[in-house]
């Protein structure tokens, strides 16, 4: 069990990193031949960077679109972020102060994450338009995340697992040593789902994470009259012009 | 009007009415297919070849490596549904395939099938589909129910722009001989003659002469409408509808009066007599570039110092956002002015500097509202600050008319609705979807007509103006209630005191 999971964990990490790196490289290398910021847009590169930052941190466009959706999305994403930060303690010794600081809020951040996911699931199931655009993979992704969150919550609230053993195991993995993973079915499910998430990440709609940074409608400055924007392939068309 | 079309009901825009889904409501709406002659003129295959599927997938692959927008937007969508109630064609028709994400999915399903591991291994799971003839027909219908207005892109958390995807889809269809008649025929006309309407030089000269006479009769002032004048200061590029369609031509008279009153010499070009660049509609960079280069050539030949564009929406997008890329650098023009400049920037500047005088009584009795044209609002700018494209037209209108009223804020500025006829849909066989797509704008207009006494709606796009004159009667409005902004300027401007 300990060894099998170690192999899975290493494989998933490699797939996640290599897959994401490949996608990011592909996004970065694909040229954007035309200036297409959705206007009104910032006039400078710094302004455009700030726009992307607001999109990432505040979900600015989503706020314009639908307040309930925005609330659900913020609950889930912010909850997830704090949960991930909280889990960093399993990978470090001593534990950083910020990670230490979120420890007491385990229940709340967990509920935020799962609550947000449940709201999103309700929307997907009961709003006719959203049900129409929802495919099996959208449901699987939601269920996967709800599964991760709820097994975590259950372990936190009722079925406490041997977290000292878990931490020792992960610290071992970080040094390429396979130690004993506490055998607990709930923990196995929890970790199994996380590994699954890591593996599907680079092949799924979770690519919205790198995608948002590369969206030309958001990251381009509005300056086409001031600066000529010419991609390499478009420049080739210019040979032999006046 | 004839009860031929099912005209949607109008509600209160503040309630953001969203229709229930009507599956397949617009499945039969499609434009005429380009004839082999139209296709050939643009260098596209004449008709669908046997190996169309392989060719289409090859072209998709090329576009995916050429356009970051397409590449990222294929992968980034999470189906959150933020866009689902934002498209005017969905709001007017209830057809779920007119929800932006569903429209994108027509393309994305093929992308996933042929370009992603998951789509190759588990097509059903991730919504990947084989590119069948039926799906191609769905593409043809529903990618011609998108006016590339970018409203969905405003609300998308990743900025996914359905316009980029519908442009790519149309480009792929052109590459397999499945082009649209309206766009491709028009592009062919510009290559041959210089404008969308196919007006040859002699007809243009004739028209301009007639306009000079009209203005002289009307005002007693000899306002010139010059054509092909070498050494003029300004090359004016109006949409060709400005030469004869109403209310467009009343706007052209306005431009001429402003130039006259400001004492700036100008000319139109018979070679580049079209602002609109339909290359953008079919998403084809080469076509768009070829059309834009006519303007460069005309500017060089006429040795002008400035280029000013007339009132036209997608045209201003291509001019403002793409002209420097497609046909620049413009180092031979006077660098003290924006290149290119919008006629409204020119007029606004004159109003501010008191270079022209406007008398609002020329528009007495009119209560105006303003329809932000989608591509001006969301794909370009005017002036030197973000949002100038909203401020400048309004300031020009307010300087010209006694009363101005805003429509509901969910329907103006960056959230403006398309008129329903943009993006290559302004063709009679698409009348049904055009009427339905106009619903959100008509609702907002009815609201201010009923509650704000609005009598006229000004627009700054040739397509908007044509679409509204055609469609407004179906909603109980007078077709003459839509006006050009420079028509209002034309009514208000004081001529003859030119220093």
Features of the shown structure:
heterodimer; A: 242 residues; mainly alpha; Fumarate Reductase Cytochrome B subunit; 69% helix; globular; B: 499 residues; 2 domains; four-stranded parallel beta sheet; 22 helices
Describe the structure concisely:
The complex is a heterodimer of chains A (242) and B (499). With 242 residues, chain A is mainly alpha-helical.
Number of helices of chain B: 22
User: CATH homologous superfamily name of chain A?
Assistant: Transmembrane di-heme cytochromes, Chain C
Taken in chain order, the helices and strands of chain A follow as HHHHHHHHHHHHH
Supply the CATH class of chain A. Answer: Mainly Alpha
Helix share of residues of chain A?
Answer: 55-70%
Rg of chain B, Cα atoms, Å? 22 Å
| Chain pair sharing the greatest interface | A-B, 62 and 76 residues
Q: How would you characterize the overall build of this protein?
A:
- The complex is a heterodimer of chains A (about 240) and B (about 500).
- Chain A is an all-alpha fold and about 240 residues long.
- Chain A has a single domain (about 45-220), classed as Transmembrane di-heme cytochromes, Chain C (Fumarate Reductase Cytochrome B subunit), CATH 1.20.950.20.
- Chain A has helices spanning about 1-30, 45-60, 60-65, 65-85, 95-100, 105-125, 130-135, 135-155, 165-175, 185-200, 210-215, 215-220, 230-235.
- The radius of gyration of chain A is 22 Å and the shape is globular.
- Chain B has two domains: about 15-185, no CATH class; about 195-405 and about 455-490, no CATH class.
- Chain B contains 22 helices and eight strands.
- In chain B, helix 5 packs across helix 10, helix 16 packs across helix 18 and helix 18 (about 390-400) runs parallel beside helix 22.
- The longest helix of chain B is centred in the middle third of the chain and has 19 residues, at about 200-220.
- Chain B is globular and about 75 Å long.
- Chain B starts with about 35 loop residues before the first helix and ends in a 7-residue tail after the last helix.
- Chains A and B meet through helix 1, helix 3, helix 7, helix 8 and helix 11 of A and helix 2, helix 3, helix 5, helix 7 and helix 9 of B.
